[in-house]
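Hey, resending since the last one bounced:
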Amino acid sequence: MSDSPEKKDELAGTEQPFVSHLVELRDRLVKAVMAIAVVAIALGVYPGPAALYDLMAAPLVAHLPKGATMIATSVISPFMVPLKVLMMTAFMIALPVVLYQLWAFVAPGLYAHEKKLVLPLVVSSTLLFFVGVAFCYFFVFGRVFAFIQSFAPASITASPDIEAYLGFVLSMFLAFGMAFEVPVVVVVLARMGIFSVQKLKDFRGYFVVLAFIIAAIVTPPDVVSQLALAIPMVALYEVGIWAAQIFIRHTQAPEATE
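The structure tokens again:
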């Protein structure tokens, strides 16, 4: 007896030779790199690397003493540091195109229920990372720098190094961007069956402690940035538990549903 159309393998006839996969992967990578290059060239023309660095440094400069400026302790820092900022910005702006190329490469090898699982995770994780970076830049930086400057002795003039500031910003962006991925991690753990939703609920109290430990490790030693990281992580953990219950219900394989 032949299988009904509903039972047929969705991927039947889609197999490709290994070389074809490599060629497609190369083409996808080229398109992703081209997207980053186009954005980098556009940003290089306007507003330019120097203006991008000034924008990134604005939260700190606003809290420096009157007349104080940032300094460059290396000969090539005034050239290399703004260039790094330009490339970082270009990658973040072109990230949707990069992720689309990745999705277009892997999607043909996924079943329908797997596409329902992977695509929302890719989109939500990207958006949450950007939200974390924006939260850090617009909310956390101003309060952290004001708090730090309030402890500066009157006998010194703060003149931060531009390269050290770039390293600080990147580490903070990464910390907050990854911290805002908590809902995605919770959903994946629940969907893969590593932890049940009930166990995740029971872990709430422990996660609060864990969130404050992580915040104390990855942020500067000030209470403002630690609270600004730990509190959203705890709130996003609850969002992840709520999302996991909905996500599991809508991404089951057909045979599991039956």
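The chain has a mean pLDDT of 86.

Sorry for the duplicate.
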